[in-house]
Amino acid sequence: MKDFQNKVALITGAGSGIGRALALELAESGCSLALIDWNEGSLSETEQMLEKKNIAVSSHILDVSDKEKVKDLPNQVLSHHNQIDLVFNNAGLSIVGTVDEVDEDDWNFGLDILLNSVIQMTTVFLPHLEKRPEAAIVNTSSIFGLFSVPKQSIYNVGKFGVKAFTESLSLEMEIAESPVEVYCVFPGHIGTNIYSSSRFKSFEPDDAGAAIFGANAATEKEAGIQFKKNAPSSPEYAAKTILKNIKKKNKRILIGFDAHFYDLMSRLFPKSFLKIIWILPFLRNLFKSE
User: Fold this and answer.
1) 162: domain range?
2) Which of 4, 117, 139, 156 has its CA 20 to 30 A from that of 182?
């Protein structure tokens, strides 16, 4: 996809973080937007930021795990925009806890948002995307879709699943010579609110899970603040990186030095990788992105 002008993009999780940054970047390119988020207040804030842009914007308050509402979403989007060219499956959440601590409800809740919603959103919009001269599906996995860490089993399974689903779909689209391009995004540590809005089954001072992100906190709240403050990459940087790689047709998009580092180390040192991941928190500030 050479440019985004006169295209229509749907973005889940558009109320904050990478989703909001994508909306602002795409708007600058002349791309109209269908914004999706469960939080009416934050979604309204994103919409207000776009008021002076010369594009069409529709907002849809929606929990992406609500299967019936997702099923009807293409009708709503097409009634506003008459077309759909890009779908960014960006919404996500984290449930922090050991395998012993999380229960069946946690697994169902987490995977419905992290994985099942990505599959359903892709499925319901794919027939409409295939009618366009060129189109794209952009699914957000994570560095935790490349390797696993303690106390993030639900997030790991969800993001590994997004990776597997997206890669399979990409191959199918290529074999079918479809106009739909399929991208998988692997953000590293991005300065968003995802950690502070996590569901915590447990938290201890100097928690090992938080330490991976350079946090050395005594409380959940403090860890969330440090997670966002210490991030080597911003949502704006992430959005620019994603769109630049779509233009270049790079189907596998790593965001941030840490993502590239972890990806390489997990391949080179699979047996000792869990020891290596603790090195980067000490180095992250040397490679901080704007």
Assistant:
1) 8-191+234-260
2) 156
Q: Is 163 exposed, middle or buried (0-12, 13-18, 19+ CB in 10 A)?
A: buried
pTM of the predicted model as reported, rounded to 2 decimal places:
0.92
Catalytic annotation on 155?
yes
CATH number at residue 162: 3.40.50.720
- With bands split at pLDDT 50, 70 and 90, how would you rate the model's confidence at 290? very low
Alpha helix stretches (DSSP H) within 215-272: 220-229, 235-247, 257-268
Q: Lowest mean pLDDT: which of 33-47, 145-159, 170-184, 238-252?
A: 145-159
**Amino acid present at 105:** D
Number of structural domains, the chain? Answer: 1
Interatomic CA distance for residues 105 and 279, integer angstroms: 35
For the record, the structure tokens of 268 come out as 């080179």
CA-CA distances (angstroms) from residue 250 to 49, 62, 64, 182? 29, 30, 27, 10
Across the chain, where does the E strand assignment appear?
8-12, 32-37, 57-61, 86-89, 95-96, 135-140, 180-187, 199-200, 252-255
The pairing of beta strand 135-140 with beta strand 95-96: unpaired
